[in-house]
């Protein structure tokens, strides 16, 4: 197999870590990315790599040679703390002076300790009475794309993939990001607003873990693709269901429960680290 190493490390560290997998050769893919060819994967090797890469702040992934991005047909992404750096609901709550309370519930939900529907209802209820202008302030002042987001999406489009943003967050943000990045599909929750103020409720069905999975499956059907042709990226426990049906699941700066179940874990590099998993020339 090929072992892909990514992160800000010295060449000596790369050579030392490649040797743990008995790699036959090392090719530099770009800044802070290397492909170690002919690597051997075993339980012992993975355990050694886990410790060495964590210490060197490197991401590692075993991949089959000659895999191409164009082998896939869909790139599906979670929004909060995946495509963007913030949890929007936490920042909205900050406008109410309630960020610590809401963030605590968010963290528990992302770790899988609270069922997502319950956590969403509890968090949104705390926003009751907040002026809806707070949503635009969060978008303008705090929302930032994760490193490498635009490069990843541009490459996916170039390779012919459709793009989906599926989120337990809110349409106010997913609609704007869809337009900003030229995404093909979005699906998220709609906040109820009356007389310019949030009511503390969402309108319609809740986009929870099961709905996220169903959305990925639905979009795959619409574009004539198998779920095995989907790349799905997320960070929290409510992303696991949709990640489980994907041909390639990517945990980005994710909770331990998500990293443990994903095909790929990116902890130190940006979203565009996904691109180094593929042989772009093939």
Protein described:
With 282 residues, the protein is α/β, with parallel strands linked by helices. The chain has helices at 11-20, 43-56, 79-83, 88-94, 99-110, 116-125, 133-141, 149-158, 171-181, 209-222, 240-244, 256-259, and strands at 2-6, 25-30, 33-37, 59-63, 74-77, 162-170, 185-194, 197-203, 230-234, 248-252, 264-266. The chain has a domain at 1-65: 2-Layer Sandwich (Alpha-Beta Plaits). Helices cover 39% and strands 23% of the residues. The strands form two sheets. It has a seven-stranded mixed sheet with strand order 8-7-6-5-9-10-11, sandwiched between helices. A hairpin with a 2-residue loop joins β2 (25-30) and β3 (33-37). α4 runs antiparallel to α5 (99-110). The radius of gyration is 20 Å and the shape is globular. The mean pLDDT is 95.
Short description:
It comes from Paucimonas lemoignei. The chain has 282 residues and is α/β, with parallel strands linked by helices.
